Amino acid sequence: MKYLLGALLLMASVALASDDDVTWSPPVNGLRARLVVLPPTGTNTPFCRVLIEIQNNDNVAGQKKIRFSPDKLDLHVTDKAGKELPVANGPYDGMSPLWEPTLLPYAGNIKFQISFPGLGYHPAKDKTIVDVGQGKAWIVPQDGSAYWLSGKLTIPKEQGDHPHMVWSGALALPKVEIPKSQ
Questions:
Q1: Model pTM greater than 0.90?
Q2: Which domains does the chain have, with CATH numbers?
């Protein structure tokens, strides 16, 4: 009975890990990350909520200091053929929080919103918008096709950084499907 229970738990964890690993970036210097795109919160807004999730998978005990800010993201929206959707060039009036370095504990995860909409849009026409700041906003066509958000998070090493406790590197963020408008 113990062996059967153990085998079932092992199979379940392997299945979950393999499904889960596809959505994460390959690990770099003890971190991996992924994007999450959620549908708009109601019928009165076309703005999807975009989050980033970062996981400390290093084998060094302690906290990793991460100097995250959205300006360290290079994002793209593509269609099923891989063709990039152009960045929206409408009027912009958005704000973003001040970003302080984040401490991520050993074996910890953190997920937080990185979209703070400010793109001007046409309410009758624009139904789905991904907006992660000025120059990083896309009006997603409602043409029945699937569109994906992907990119790269790059945080350069700075003089005086601890080699294991201050993270630097580049994470290739796998594509995630953008929800269609309701």
A1: no
A2: 26-177 (2.60.40)
